[in-house]
Write a structure and sequence with these properties.
By secondary structure, this protein is α/β, with parallel strands linked by helices. It contains 13 helices and twelve strands. Helix 5 runs parallel beside helix 7, helix 8 runs parallel beside helix 10 and helix 8 crosses helix 13. It is an enzyme of class 1 (oxidoreductase).
Length: 309
């Protein structure tokens, strides 16, 4: 819950439902600004304690963001398997307590044999990372439990999510690091090819999509797992957009081992079903995203005492 997605989603939900009606949880100590709102310690591997939290707080929705992501998961497959596959705790507790359960999926849930341009909601997936495999497992288990027992399971496949609070670390996160580099050194080394196109989304659109999806009546949903899309761009395209603000930006390209995995990911998401069933519509395109990120990163770096050009 204390990751970049959880904190922002909780803030949005609290504005709509009241501060005391949304509880954040994690296994680490929250920052002071988070600690002033409802927070509980919760380990997703501890079934008994999770049950206590749900029962004692009258929980009705459960948003499950706990996971080891692609790069970290590949470095520690055993731990990723333990954390990412232990969805059974939240599945069982959601069934037992009639909860509405949201579990995000990912661009990484697709593999080399998947359609890439665009990737539809329903197709061959077969990913080759433990993170992707675990997400497909979650998608299928949630759908199975919905059809067999009526679990109100909901899942969105997120594209690359762009946020000032994202910690760069491979995958789609070059599209965050490039803003920091543009505002500091004016030079960015990218581990992808200049023409590697990937689906991306501003974090505010990601949060809004999640809330709107959770609020949608079940009778409107034709699927339990949906793609959501906003834009697709290449490193060179985002660099060109940044140069409209910072003409001095220089980008060099030095591909690494991450590229092979990313080359199997979709170029674009087909989110036709999300738009039709529950009215999904993004608000950020590339131009607006770049303007917002430059402003946000500049403020963040200034507040942290980091250099800004």
């Amino acid at each position: 819950g204390l990751g970049q997605l959880g904190v922002g989603l909780a803030q949005l939900l609290r504005r709509q439902y009241g501060k005391d009606n949304v509880i954040l949880s994690d296994i680490k100590k929250p920052q002071p600004q988070v600690a002033n709102s409802p927070f509980v310690y919760a380990d997703v591997l501890d079934y008994k304690h999770l049950r206590e939290v749900i029962v004692n707080n009258g929980i009705t929705w459960l948003v499950h963001y706990s996971a080891l992501l692609s790069a970290v998961g590949e470095a520690n497959v055993a731990l990723a398997r333990k954390i990412n596959i232990t969805l059974h705790n939240v599945f069982d507790l959601s069934l037992e307590n009639c909860l509405r359960l949201f579990v995000p999926s990912t661009i990484g849930a697709f593999g080399p044999s998947s359609p890439r341009d665009p990737a539809p909601d329903l197709c061959i997936q077969r990913p080759r990372t433990i993170y992707g495999v675990s997400k497909v497992h979650g998608e299928l288990m949630g759908e199975y439990l919905h059809h067999k027992y009526g679990l109100d399971f909901r899942c969105l496949r997120y594209p690359g999510v762009i946020s000032v609070n994202t910690t760069p670390g491979g995958g789609t996160t070059y599209a965050v690091q490039i803003f920091h580099d543009a505002l500091s050194t004016g030079q960015h080394e990218c581990y992808l090819r200049p023409d590697t196109r990937l689906p991306m989304m501003h974090i505010s659109d990601c949060h809004r999509a999640t809330v709107e999806f959770m609020q949608t009546s079940e009778c409107q949903l034709s699927l339990r797992t949906y793609n959501i899309a906003a834009m697709s761009f290449t490193p060179e395209e985002v660099a060109q957009e940044i140069r409209k603000h910072l003409p001095h930006l220089k980008v060099t390209y030095k591909t690494d081992s991450v590229r092979q995995t990313i080359d199997s990911w979709p170029v674009r998401f087909d989110d036709t079903n999300a738009r039709r069933d529950w009215g999904w519509e993004p608000t950020f395109g590339l131009e607006k995203l770049v303007t917002d990120m430059l402003q946000s990163v500049r403020i963040k770096r200034t507040n942290e005492g980091l250099p800004v050009s």
